[in-house]
């Protein structure tokens, strides 16, 4: 946010605000993004816009869909051998969808 980089999340929020003719949300994004020293109020406004426009939920769903399907695809292409469980779980762990050795829980090293 501070750098004002055009992330996918911000792009979705902006596109949805424009489509809804929600000038208040567009104004918040334009004013707050790129502010090198945002205050708590500005951060809260941006969070509100990301949720209110549905951008947060849309991006989360876009992350979850392929992450949920990755184990099924991995099963088709990888042999069943010792030690293949952790690499197969990596996409879901990277997306923050599961807990386990990749998310700070104790487990097999």
Write the layout of secondary structure elements.
Layout: H1 8-19, H2 23-32, H3 40-52, H4 55-77, H5 85-94
Provide an overview of this structure.
The protein is mainly α and 109 residues long. 62% of the residues lie in helices and 0% in strands. It has helices at 8-19, 23-32, 40-52, 55-77, 85-94. The two termini are 36 Å apart. It is elongated, with a radius of gyration of 19 Å.
Q: By helix and strand content, what is the structural category?
A: mainly alpha
Query: Main beta sheet: strand number and arrangement?
Result: none
Shape: elongated
Determine Rg (CA atoms, Å).
19 Å
Q: What is the helical fraction, as a range of percent?
A: 55-70%
Number of strands: 0
Average pLDDT, rounded to a whole number, is 79
* Low-pLDDT sequence parts: 102-109
Strand content: under 5%
N-to-C span: 36 Å
One letter per element, helices H and strands E, the order comes to: HHHHH
Q: Give the number of helices.
A: 5
